[in-house]
Write a structure and sequence with these properties.
It is built from five helices and no strands. By secondary structure, it is mainly α.
Length: about 160
């Protein structure tokens, strides 16, 4: 039981460290290097989506358990870059007054899709005889589509005061 507990907490420890590091790097890029906030957000969100997409595709190769665990830790760690990407984007465009409302409005559809996704995963695992390959491929495809959309359309200019 102790080994399972350690294995289950490690991805989230990796994500916490990466999220803090991503925030620090984003601040450094904007304040000291003069990188635009839009480009910092785009870069962070690209890492948060394309990194896990690549690692999910590596998981389709059915690696050994230790390698799969390392890949999963990498997925959660790289996904935590969203803390410096989408995670704080609403503050860029809305400031403190409306950022919570905008964050909630943009997150609600994701929560609904995520809840429905649990059912879809169960159905697809039944169809594929519990092979996760299709799940990893679909997740990678959604991540790539999300990265392309965010990179193409995100702009950090203030829209609401």
């Amino acid at each position: 039981m102790t080994e399972a507990a350690g294995s289950s907490v490690l991805p989230f420890v990796c994500a916490a460290v990466t999220a803090a590091s991503a925030g620090f790097a984003a601040d450094l890029a904007v304040e000291r290097l003069g990188v635009s906030l839009t480009n910092v957000r785009r870069a962070a969100q690209s890492i948060a989506l394309l990194g896990p997409a690549a690692l999910m595709l590596a998981l389709t190769m059915h690696p050994t358990q230790p390698v799969a665990e390392a890949l999963f830790c990498g997925c959660t760690a790289l996904g935590a870059f969203s803390a410096a990407g989408f995670g704080c984007s609403s503050q860029d465009i809305a400031g403190s007054k409306y950022s919570g409302l905008i964050y909630g409005a943009t997150s609600a559809p994701a929560l609904l899709v995520g809840a429905a996704g649990v059912q879809l995963v169960g159905i697809l695992l039944d169809i594929t005889d519990k092979d996760f390959t299709l799940m990893f491929q679909l997740t990678a495809a959604v991540d790539v589509a999300g990265a392309l959309a965010y990179f193409a359309w995100w702009d950090s200019k203030r829209l609401f005061e």
